[in-house]
Write a structure and sequence with these properties.
Length: 219
Amino acid sequence: PTGPYQKKPVPKEVIEEILEVASRAPSGGNTQPWHLYVLTGDAREELVRTMRDPKVFKKNKQEYAVYPSKATEPRKFSERKRAVAFDMYDLMGVDRNDNAGRAQAMAKNWEFFGAPVGILVSVDRACDRNAWGHTGMLLQSICLLAEERGLATCLQEAWGNLDAVPEFLKLPESEVLWCAIALGYPDKDAPVNKIQTTREPLDQFVRWHGFDSLPSSKL
C-alpha cells in the first residue's frame, strides 16, 4: 500500500528472517550488488526530521533518471502515471487541482507513509545496469515475503537523487542510493490501501514465436 500503516512495531527477528530468505534472490555471477540500510525508532525519526528541511530538495546531483524526460516519454507512460496518481488522490480525499494538498500527499513519501520501518536501498557503482535488475529481484522477494507475514510494503523511488540521504547514512562513494521500502503492518481500513492499479493485456507486451507449429495443449 501507499500507507497509512499501523504504529505497531515490526520485530527485528521478523525483518531478519525476511531479508535472509530474500537474499537468495538471483544475481548475475552471484555478485549480489545490493546494500540495505534498515531504520526504525530514533534513527528513522531523525531521518524523517532531516527530510522536513526544504533545503534538502535544492541543488541535488542527479544520479539517474527515475522517469523518461517529457521530450522522450511515451504517451502511454504519462497516461498510466496520471491515472494512478489521480486514483490515489481521490482515495486520499485530495482534489487533483489542489496543488498544496498534492504536495502534502507527496511529502508523506519522506515519512515512509507512516511505516515504522524504512529500508534504504543502494547498488554498487562497480556494476552496470544489470545490477539494478538484480537488485529489483531482491526487492520483489522482500515485498512478497513481507506479504506472507501480514506486513505491507511500498517501494519509493522518491528517496533517490537527494544528497542529504547518502550523507545521513554515511553511504560510501562506492554505492549509489536507489530507493526505499516502507515496511509495516497496513491500516486495512485506509481507503488508499485498497487501490488496484491496472495492467496491460498480454498482447500489448508479449510477442510469441514458434508456438503456432506446436500441438494444442488444451485439456
